[in-house]
Amino acid sequence: MTSFGRVISVRGSLARVGLLATSHASISEVRATVGRFVSIRCAGSIIVAMITEVSCENLSKSDNFIAIASVDLLGEILNAAEKPKFQRGVTHYPTIGDEVELISSEELRTIYAPSGSDQINVGTLQQDRSVTAYVDVEEMLSKHFAILGSTGVGKSTGVSLLLNEILKARPNLRLFLLDVHNEYGRCFGDKALVLNPRNLKLPFWLFNFEEIVDVLFAGRPGVPEELDILAEVIPLAKGIYTQYQNSDRIGLKRADPKQVGYTVDTPVPYRLQDLVLQIDERMGKLENRSSRIIYHKLISRIDTVKNDPRYAFMFDNANVGGDTMAEVISHLFRLPANGRPMTVMQLAGFPVEVVDSVVSVLCRMAFDFGLWSDGVSPLLFICEEAHRYASADRSIGFGPTRKAISRIAKEGRKYGVFLGLVTQRPAELDATIISQCNTLFSMRLANDRDQALLRSAVSDAAANLLSFVPSLGTREVLAFGEGVALPTRLRFKEVPPHQLPRAETRISAAPSVASGQDTHFVSAVLERWRGATSSRDNQGDSGFSQPQRYEPRTPEPRAPEPRTVEAPMLQPSLGLDPDRFSLLKKPLR
To answer: How far apart are CA 495 and CA 154, in angstroms?
Structure first.
């Protein structure tokens, strides 16, 4: 390369370069623009720098320069003549008059050359498409990562690309993806188990006290009097269940449930029947009729949720019992993997009122299992639309969910639980959580607040790259942090059609009105819509099924069957007037 400039000043990690007019090469070869890498020839090394500003203002006429460029010093190539090796940071600073050149393809390959088997190919450099961009899997995972970008910039495709490459590089790593919009079901083929409300089994007793309260009160604040009752009877119900299970060992002697030592958050089974009986027993001891209303409301609330078919994934066999915690965790987190090391949890079909509590349970169990297993089975937990569950505004969202994600971000790496965040609004994400992500992939972001947060999260050397964020093209990425050799503008490689998220492929496959299938299409959609609130079906031998492809067909007409809620509180023996609660006996539709 022909020298096109010389160093005219140096200050810390910054330098200024005077650009010379030259006729020795074409304009394209010596084009000095913002974002380009340059090399500065020093006595003991080649310093790698990036142009951050070019200006001809206040240019002295006595100089031979046509412009002045500001550059950030990023790293250096050592032993360039024999066996070149790149390292971050600068040990030999340039001096005034050192020659500056555009960096060559060979030097770029030295910088981005894979240093081991933990490197994955994610695309090519924007500056030189012949140079492959690699990401260090170990650094990216062990110190968490985040993918940021507005809607429509290829963020979901980038997630599919990264996760498929991680699966290839780390076949023993388990992955758990929270799929908010049900778009990743087919991206990973037979390597992923797809779960949804119709084939999930997540027993209610796995929920801690805050989570079960969130379910019972449909996401609204709980009534303090009812919470006090629940906090008292849940440990007793757990103790009663333990007595049933140990009856063969303790004989006919019944121990006091209060002496078992369980708390409201101890993850042991209990039956709803025992819970309601404990509430009913306390209600029967009250002489004041007005005081019983609180107990009646709580029992009615429990029965309503238990009988709601949308909550079947929680309350199936609620009164049968059985400690299935080992089976649930093995199934959720793929232990053993059996050829499917990944779980895609589709959240779009869950009742809106309980999505936050379900996510809280999953995050909490992922961390706790890593904690108590000493991290012997590493897990990557990917949270799509992370700003929904870990909002920067503490008054928004569900506190336990934020706490569970934050705990993974802060402590998860010690126990083999790694975090991947995906969001289109980083400004709305808890700053403490995103600050724990040491590798960032930023796609196009137009919002000023999002750009400001990103600027505060990256190093000074990379901050000047952020001026490109609003103008990035589709699939273009600015990569920062530990997982990449240098802050880099790159382009994600093409993703095979079978790995594209469903949202990008279904439009062309959907029947149109012109095809004459519009009536069947609407009927099929309505059947799936109504099926989301009915009992589970279409299960295989294992009790779990994959999401079915849309097949236009006319649904069979079914008349809804009214059901009646009969709560224990309506028994005449309780001394209440049944007519006062006649509304509770009306059929629910």
So the answer is: 11
pLDDT, tens digit (0-9, with 9 covering 90-100), for 126-181: 888 888 889 999 999 999 999 998 888 888 999 999 999 999 999 899 999 999 99
Burial class for 30, CB neighbours closer than 10 Å (0-12, 13-18, 19+): buried
Specify the DSSP element, H or E, that contains 227. Answer: helix 224-245
Place of tokens 């009915």: 534
Give the Cα separation of 360 and 383 in Å (integer).
Answer: 12
Relative to beta strand 65-78, strand 85-88 is antiparallel
Please state the pTM of the whole predicted model: 0.81
Task: Please identify which residue in the block is written with the tokens 């279904």.
Answer: 506
| CATH fold label, 120-194+340-507 | Rossmann fold (3.40.50)
Distance CA 493, CA 498 (A): 15
d(CA 233, CA 220) in angstroms, rounded, equals 21
The string of pLDDT tens digits covering residues 29-77 is: 456 777 788 899 887 788 999 888 888 877 776 667 888 888 988 888 8
CATH 3.40.50.300 intervals, the chain:
120-194+340-507
What are the structure tokens assigned to 118, written together?
A: 């933990």
CA angle 235, 237, 239 (to 5 degrees): 70
Strand, coil or helix: what is 75? strand
